[in-house]
Prior knowledge:
The protein is mostly helical. It has one domain (about 5-240). It contains 14 helices and two strands; from the N terminus they run αααααβααααβααααα. The protein has helices at about 5-25, 30-55, 65-85, 85-110, 115-135, 155-180, 180-190, 190-195, 200-230, 235, 240-250, 260-275, 280-295, 300-305, and strands spanning about 145, 230. The protein has a two-stranded antiparallel sheet with strand order 1-2. Helix 2 (about 30-55) crosses helix 11 (about 240-250) and helix 3 runs antiparallel to helix 4. It starts with a helix and ends with a helix.
Amino acid sequence: MGKLEKASVGFLILLGLLPILLELLGEGIPKGYILRILSSALMLSSLALAQNVLLGYTGYPAFGSVAFFGIGGYTSAILSKNFEVPLWFSISLGGVMASVVAFLIAPVLMRLKSHYFAIATLALQLALGEMVANLEFTGGTDGINLPIYRGFMEDYIFYFLFLSLAVFSFGVNLYVDRSVFGYALKAIREDEVAAESTGVNTVLFKSYSFSIMAFITGLCGGIYAFWITYIDPVSMFDPLLSVKLFVALLLGGVGTVAGPLWGAFGLELVSEIVWSEFTQIHGVVLGLLIVLAVLFLPRGLAGVRR
């Protein structure tokens, strides 16, 4: 592993030890606030790392990847509320459902390239949002209320779930970056026709890449649903979340193992500071900072270390 990857592993280990420190410090610190910010950053990290498998290594930008966030969230919520499936199992099934849907539509969807593919995935996201809003078993526009989790490590459970997913996503990116599977994806990214001529089954490999992205994104949606305890079509199929994860990916560095992790944490930290200091014009200030970062860091934070 490179220095940045090793630093990322150390950072994730420190995040795993953080709850111990919070307990030792006692009631004098805003534990809930810290956990909320870090959980949001870890969620964004997982989404950016998932997108990195598809965009960074395969070269296909899915602007509508949040469609699978919604599929995972709604699958988990419906299984839990209507069929009393345990939280852990319903979250897992949410990820599986998202992955299966992605694998089924990938052979058709991924025949499109570049901005055509990006627009098609965005259309899928918006269409699913409208469909969910008009179905009775999904709660329609009223959404679904979920019970507040009470049980083992209830103060930290969702923080650890997001942390576990971020670690898993980081591990997936590390594997893809160094494996034969990853080399095939990179060959598709560089020249799909040439890759196919050398014997790479491009449709199958692209489908796998798309499914991996959807699986991680679906798991993220399931955890988010139980964390927030209320979901509706607007929040689960929000195009702004797609924008945010792409910004995190660009800030960190597309096609790098550690870049999406640092980009997500950097974006979340800056967003929180800007929100607290510039409440009225936070959108303008944050947008300006992002433009400057992209202009002066075209290869992302990970590119600075190269």
